[in-house]
Each structure stands twice: as C-alpha cells, then as structure tokens.
Design a protein that fits this description.
Blueprint lengths: L1 H11 L9 H4 L2 H32 L21 H22 L4 H21 L15 H8 L10 H12 L4 H20 L5 H21 L1 H11 L5
C-alpha cells in the first residue's frame, strides 16, 4: 500500500502546485454540481441494474444463442478472474481514492462522465441479446466475487466496461502522462483478460475505446463548466 501511495503522490507532484482542495468541491455552485453528479451516478447505476437483470433474463431464452468469434474461436480459455474481478474492483477503489484525495479538481466531471458511460452502456446492453460464449469463466464464491455479482458486473456484453471505463479515465487525465499511460495499460490488460476468459466477444472489447471516446466528447459538451475546472489546471501542466 505504501508503494501505491508513493506512486500516487509522485503523479500528483508532476503538476505545478495546485491550491484547489477537496474543500473547494463543497463550496458554492460546485456543491450543487457535485450533488447533481452523485444523483446522476446513482440513477445511472439503477438503470444499469435493471438493464443487466433484463439481459440476464433474456439470455436464458432459447433465442439467445452464442455466435462465432474469429478471435475467441482460436483462444484457449484461461481463468483470469483475479484480474477481471479482484483487479477491477481494486482499480475502482484506488482510482476513486486518487481522484478524491489527489485530484479533487477532476472529481465532478469524472463522476458525471462515468454516470453517462454507465447509462449509455446500459442502453446498449438492453438492445441486442447474444448468448455468452461457451466455456467462459464464471465468478467464484469469494467475497469480492459476491460483490462483483451483486453489482451485476458479470452480465451485459456490449460494450466491455473493463476496457471502456479505464480508457475513459485515460481521456479525462490525458494531460497527465503517467496517469494516462496507467489507465491505458489497465484498459489493455482488462480487454485481454476478458477475451482470454471468454466473458466478452472481441467486438465488445474493440468497440469499447471508440464508445468511451464518444462518451467523453458528449460529456465535455454536456458539462462544459465542470470540464473547464480541469482545463484550468491542464493549461499549467508541462507535458
């Protein structure tokens, strides 16, 4: 944990000193914007919950069959749950701590962008239903596996959240190279892991960065004031 803390501190020190603190998020109009962001995120998760439940119910129907996949057909299935489950949940927790305590300036826009990502992904999950690929790796029975299943992360195919969400974070933190490269690496590892475990089709993985980029652009258009708060720091960052 000390190594992770030291790494986050080093990342934070890459920029010039920033007087913006977490307290500033709770002042004036920013507090209202933060509450809006949390409301949007909660609403997006509710939508995703029902979308995933619907996708799971639909997958049990006789009409939901798996389809061939050029990549999966030639990949031996490998159990990579330690990346797909433990790795994903750990990344979410550490990423949240990093934004809250090291980059609070990014907090409001990040929450709104993630809410938009979650809601749009839920819409796509609800549209077309294809059976999951045979011999896929299923979650185990541990605590983190139960949390993963409770959050409905194991259902819904298009598009891959393991690939798309860290790519979205890389776009948000694009002006901070080490953070950008870290999230891009997480996106690549997540994409490779879900393919090797056969829990996503290749189209789910390869489409995810394009979907994430589109969502990022939409978020910038919908929430310009929140993104302007990020840009006010980005203009001072030396890359």
């Amino acid at each position: 944990m000390m190594d992770i803390t030291a790494y986050f501190t080093a990342i934070s020190n890459m920029t010039t000193e920033d007087s913006f603190t977490l307290r500033d998020v709770f002042r004036g109009e920013r507090l209202s914007s933060l509450l809006t962001a949390l409301t949007l995120l909660a609403g997006a998760y509710v939508i995703e919950h029902f979308a995933n439940a619907y996708a799971f119910e639909y997958s049990l129907r006789s009409t939901s069959n798996h389809v061939g996949d050029l990549i999966l057909d030639n990949l031996q299935v490998i159990d990579l749950n330690f990346i797909i489950i433990e790795g994903a949940l750990t990344t979410i927790v550490l990423g949240t701590l990093f934004v809250v305590f090291f980059k609070p300036r990014y907090l409001i826009f990040t929450l709104k962008a993630i809410a938009l990502f979650t809601a749009i992904r839920a819409l796509f999950i609800s549209l077309t239903h294809v059976g999951i690929y045979p011999d896929h790796i299923v979650p185990g029975h541990g605590l983190l596996d139960s949390i993963y299943m409770y959050l409905n992360f194991e259902t819904g195919l298009f598009f891959s959240g393991h690939t798309g969400l860290p790519f979205l974070m890389a776009l948000i933190f694009w002006q901070i190279p080490k953070v950008r490269y870290l999230f891009l690496a997480v996106s690549c590892v997540g994409g490779i892991a879900v393919l090797l475990a056969h829990v996503h089709y290749s189209i789910d993985v390869f489409a995810a960065p394009f979907m994430a980029y589109s969502i990022y652009r939409i978020a910038r258009y919908l929430f310009p004031h929140d993104h302007a708060l990020i840009e006010s720091e980005s203009s001072r960052i030396s890359v």
